[in-house]
Design goal:
This protein has 216 residues and is mainly α. It has 9 helices and no strands. The termini are far apart.
Length: 216
């Protein structure tokens, strides 16, 4: 299945940017909600939101020696994070929305899917072997959430929550590898993996699926 040249050129120029931006926004919302739950001030909300949004991608880029970092190249994201935090202070305090731990799970699931798929694709484009590419995607997906939870003095959910999280990201990353092996269009493999991971994580939260753990 061949993409028209103009579609391919557009995707190379803007598709990956849009895809990663969606992941950043989803994790930023998860960080913002977590910071609001802890009643942090503007500086605290901005820092936690930025850690959630940029943490995974930054670690991936460090490990792959990829420069500049996404949020440095597209520095308008720093302004977006600050603006989101300011607006949250104005409106979330007045809203009647219950900022429960479960509320944070939904944008986190979306970010998990997008970052795992996108991180895997970026590593493959840098000629990394499949297992390393999938691990890079997994790191991209989970490290932002770890940084967010540590910043608000919580045990990271990826370690404490026995519902599948990193396992889901790791499993879904292989869809991107499969698409690369069979020369699928990038958009197809990226969105297929992202939707699979997000849906599986959402099901795990909704149905309360649990991984095996230590017996007392």
């Amino acid at each position: 299945m061949q993409q028209p040249p103009e579609v391919l050129d557009w995707w190379v120029s803007y598709g990956n940017l849009i895809f990663e931006s969606l992941g950043i926004f989803a994790f930023a919302v998860s960080g913002l909600l977590e910071a609001a739950r802890k009643k942090l001030d503007l500086v605290g909300m901005s820092m936690v939101t930025a850690m959630a949004a940029f943490g995974g991608g930054t670690l991936r880029d460090i490990l792959l020696d990829r420069r500049p970092f996404f949020w440095v190249k597209y520095d308008y994201w720093v302004y977006i994070i600050i603006a989101m935090s300011f607006l949250a202070l104005l409106f979330l305090r007045r809203s009647h929305m219950a900022l429960t731990e479960r509320v944070v799970q939904w944008p986190d699931a979306i970010g998990l899917g997008i970052f795992a798929a996108g991180g895997t694709q970026i590593a493959l484009e840098m000629n990394q072997p499949p297992i390393i590419a999938v691990l890079m995607g997994t790191f991209t997906a989970i490290v932002g959430g770890v940084a967010r939870d540590v910043a608000v003095r919580e045990v990271p959910q990826v370690f404490l929550d026995h519902r599948p999280y990193a396992v889901v990201a790791f499993t879904g990353g292989w869809i991107v590898v499969l698409g690369d092996a069979f020369n699928w269009p990038n958009a197809v493999s990226l969105w297929a993996a992202a939707i699979f991971i997000t849906a599986l994580r959402a099901l795990a939260v909704w149905r309360n699926w649990r991984l095996p753990t230590w017996r007392h």
